[in-house]
Description:
The structure holds two protein chains of two kinds.
Chain A: E1 2-7, E2 12-19, E3 22-29, H1 34-49, E4 58-62, H2 68-85, E5 89-92, H3 94-106, E6 110-116, E7 122-129, E8 135-144, E9 157-160, H4 162-172, E10 179-183, H5 190-202
Helix pairs in contact in A: 3-5
Chain B: E1 2-7, E2 12-19, E3 23-31, H1 33-37, H2 44-66, E4 75-81, H3 85-102, E5 106-110, H4 111-117, E6 130-135, E7 140-147, E8 150-156, H5 162-172, H6 179-189, H7 212-228, H8 233-265, E9 270-274, H9 281-293, E10 297-299, H10 310-322
Parallel strand pairs in B: 1-4, 4-5, 6-9, 9-10
Antiparallel strand pairs in B: 1-2, 2-3, 6-7, 7-8
Bound molecules: adenosine-5'-triphosphate and magnesium ion (MG).
Amino acid sequence: MKLLALDTSTEACSAALSIDGEIKQHYQVAPREHTHLILGMIESLLQDAGLKSSDIDVMAFGRGPGSFMGVRVAAGVVQGIAFAHSIPVVPVSTLAAMASVAMQETGQTQVLAAIDARMKEVYWGAYCQDEAGQIVLQGEECVVAPEQAPVPAQGEWLTAGTGWASYGAIMRSALGERCVGSLPDCFPSAEAIARLAISAYQNGGAVTAAEAVPVYLRDNVASKPKSAL
Amino acid sequence: MIVLGIESSCDETGIALYDSEKGLLSHVLHSQIELHAEYGGVVPELASRDHIRHLVPLMEQTLQQAGLTQKDIQGVAYTAGPGLIGALMSGACVGRSLAWALGVPAQEVHHMEGHLLAPMLEENPPEFPFVALLVSGGHTLLAHVTGVGQYEILGQSLDDAAGEAFDKTAKMLGLGYPGGPILAKLAVKGVAGVYRFPRPMTDRPGLDFSFSGLKTFALNTWQKLQVECEGQTEKLEQGQADVARAFEEAVVDTLSLKCRRALKQVHCKRLVIAGGVGANQHLRQQLKAMVKKEGGELYYPRIEFCTDNGAMIAYVGCLRLMAGESKALSIDARARWPIDELPSIRD
Ligand SMILES: Nc1ncnc2c1ncn2[C@@H]1O[C@H](COP(=O)(O)OP(=O)(O)OP(=O)(O)O)[C@@H](O)[C@H]1O
Ligand SMILES: [Mg+2]
C-alpha cells in the first residue's frame, strides 16, 4: 500500500510517503512557509520513489487541532489531490501524532500531549500505547485552560508539546513526581501520521475527499452582537 | 481548453467550468449569507471554515452538471486575492493541489479582474477599449480598459466603497443583512424628491468618489425623522423608504455623473458595469439612459455574475492560461493586490 501523509498544523511542515510500511519523510520547522513548501515536499517524495500522484492508494493528514489556517492548508491540499484521483483519506489527530512522536523518541507508553492554543488555553489529549502497539486516546481531546487541564490522577506520564512549554509550571503541579519526562518542543510529524493512518485505514477509518475536513476543537470563534433594539 | 475556476475570496464559494471553445459549461454557487447574518457581517474565520467544507462537493456538482469528470480538466484557476486571506487560502490550497495532481497548469486570478471581465461571459460582449465602473462591497473604481490586464485607474473611492455605503446605511436604517439589496428594494417604495442628499465630489473635476459622508447624512435625516414620527408607525415607514430612495438616488447620480466624465475624458463610447452594486436596477436604468444620450452602449453581466461567482474566475483563468501564464508549485494568496499591477496579455 502506498500512503501519502502530510501535516501543517503547527510550526512544523512535513510530508511522508509510506510504501508497504516503509516510511520516508520531509520535515521542516518553518513557520509561515508551509504553503510554499508542502507541494514541493510531496513531489520530491513521489519522484524519489518513481511514483505519480495517481499511484497513491490512501492519503492521510493532520486534521487538527492546531493553527486554524494550518489545519486548513493540510485539509485543502489533501482534498485537491484526493479529489483528483478519488483517493480515500484518513484524518489523523495531531495530538495523537505528537504522542506517537514522543513515544518513538523516548520509549515511553503514556503521553500527555498539549499544544499551545493561544488565548490562555491548550489543546489537550492523553494517550496510551496498548499491548498491540496501538495508540489509544484516554477520555476526550479538548481545548482547555491550563488550570483546568484534565491531568490523570494516576500513572506516570511523559509530557509533550508547546502547551507544556507555555504552561508547564501550572499543568505539572497536578502531576508531581509522576512526570517521567518532558518534550516541550515536540511537534506532530507526517511520519507519525502515516503510521497512525495505516492502522486506522485497516480499521475502516477512511473518508472521501469531501469529508476530509479539519477538527478545530475551538468552535466559539466569534461573538454575536447583542441583538439590536 | 477546459478550465475549472474556484472563487473563495469572501462569503461565497463559487465553482465553474469554462471551455475556451464552447464558453461556460457549468457553474454553482454556495452563499454563506445565512451563516454570517446573525453576526451582522462576515466573520472571516467562519467564512474560511465554510469554504473548506464546501469546495469539493461543489466541484463534484459542477463536473456533474457539465457531464465531465476530473480527467477532463485542463487547467485550474483560483482567486488568489484580494480578499480575506483565510478564505482565499482555502480555495488556493485546493485549486493548486488539484492542478498538480491532475498534471495540468494552475493560474492565480485577481478577483477584481474577474468582476471586471464578467460581462465578457454574456452574449454581446463589449470590445476593447471600454470604461469600466467596478462597484462592489469592497471596491469602487473607474478604469480605462484597453485589453486584458491593461487597466488604467481613472478614479476610485477615497473612503467607503459604494456597496459598503449601501450596507452601512441599511444597517443604520435597521434593515436586515446584507443591507444593499434590501435597501434597494425599499427605495422602490420611497418617493423621489422628499429628501435631497448631496452628490459628493461632483462639484469639482476628477473621477474619485467619497461615500462615507452620505451615510452620515442618511443617519442624521433618519434620526430626525424618528423623533418627528414618534408613535406614527406608518409615517415612519414611508419616511424610511423615502430616505432609502434619496440615498440610492444620490449614489446613482454620483456614479452616473462620474461615468459620463470618464467616457468623455478617454473619448470612449462603451461603458461596462460590474460588481455587486451593478445589480442595482436604478443604477442600470440611469446609466443606460446616460450612455444612450452620449451615443454609446452599456454592458453588464447577468445579475448572478455581478456578485462573486466561479464563472468569472474560470473565464479569466482560461484567458491567462491560454496566453501561457501559469503558477509555480507553491500556494499563495494575498489580501491586497492592486489591479494595475497585473501583467497584460497579448491576443
Ligand atoms: N441591488 C443592489 N443595490 C445596491 N447594492 C447591492 C445590490 N445588490 C448587491 N449590492 C451590494 O453589492 C455588494 C456585494 O457585491 P460583491 O459580491 O461584488 O462585493 P464583494 O465581493 O463583497 O466585494 P469585493 O468584490 O470588492 O471584494 C454588497 O455591498 C451589496 O450590498
Ligand atoms: Mg466580489
